[in-house]
């Protein structure tokens, strides 16, 4: 659940994030402050405060005497980020396994059944939603606010890539198998196996992105 904005510039920052993640403000694009003020019906002061927040989050970059641009994520960024988030989400799975109650396991069972149904019916958009809910559930069960905060910050950066890994051949079923492996480890109360399975799941997402990039390049190469 998105936190309730506690000031106007927080609300503006939230609206700008939505525009970035929706692709309305594309990576590398210049942010015209006057146009944004008119579009969002706000003054320059809350906009500039919001821009500072997004620069700090890494979603924007600020260039002196030029202004703000939407950040661009490179292949090197992805290579650097995925091992880190895999490590962190792996730890979240470890802690969640140690702390999950019987009721928590039952709730996760329903989420995984939904995930399996979406995969069987090829409903990729719904699969993404179920996938996100499962990751969030593990992070919530870990009950570690520092872990949750850092994972949340890194996820924002990764969303700039805007890649749909499940469109890679075979990735949907592979992703499902990975999720089921994490859940099986949690049900067995094997925190080490849950951690390793979650790390594998995240690292294979990076592999899928490489496959997509290679396929796109091969189609462009005469």
UniProtKB/TrEMBL annotation:
Residues covered by the HTH gntR-type domain: 6-73
Pfam families referenced in this protein's UniProt entry, alphabetically: FCD (PF07729), GntR (PF00392)
Keyword line: DNA-binding, Transcription, Transcription regulation
A GO MF term: DNA binding
KW DNA-binding (keyword) present: yes
InterPro entries noted in UniProt: GntR_C (IPR011711), TF_FadR/GntR_C (IPR008920), Tscrpt_reg_HTH_GntR (IPR000524), WH-like_DNA-bd_sf (IPR036388), WH_DNA-bd_sf (IPR036390)
PANTHER family given in the database record: TRANSCRIPTIONAL REGULATOR, GNTR FAMILY, TRANSCRIPTIONAL REGULATORY PROTEIN
Name of protein: GntR family transcriptional regulator
Organism encoding this protein: Acidovorax kalamii
């Amino acid at each position: 659940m998105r936190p309730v904005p506690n000031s106007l510039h927080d609300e503006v920052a939230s609206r700008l994030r939505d525009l970035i993640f929706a692709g309305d403000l594309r990576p590398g694009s210049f942010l015209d402050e006057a146009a944004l003020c008119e579009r969002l019906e706000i003054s320059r002061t809350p906009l500039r405060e919001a821009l500072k927040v997004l620069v700090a989050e890494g979603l924007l970059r600020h260039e002196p005497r030029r202004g703000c641009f939407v950040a661009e994520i490179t292949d090197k960024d992805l290579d650097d980020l995925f091992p880190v988030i895999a490590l962190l989400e792996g730890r979240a799975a470890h802690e969640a396994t140690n702390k999950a109650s019987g009721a928590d396991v039952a709730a996760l069972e329903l989420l995984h059944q939904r995930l399996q149904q979406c995969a069987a019916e090829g409903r990729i958009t719904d699969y993404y939603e179920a996938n996100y809910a499962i990751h969030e559930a593990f992070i919530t069960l870990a009950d570690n606010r520092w872990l949750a905060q850092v994972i949340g910050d890194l996820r924002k950066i990764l969303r700039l890539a805007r890649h749909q890994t499940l469109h890679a051949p075979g990735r949907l079923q592979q992703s499902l198998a990975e999720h089921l492996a994490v859940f099986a480890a949690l049900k067995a109360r094997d925190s080490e196996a849950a951690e390793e399975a979650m790390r594998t799941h995240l690292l294979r997402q990076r592999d899928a992105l490489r496959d997509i990039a290679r396929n796109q390049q091969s189609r462009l190469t005469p």
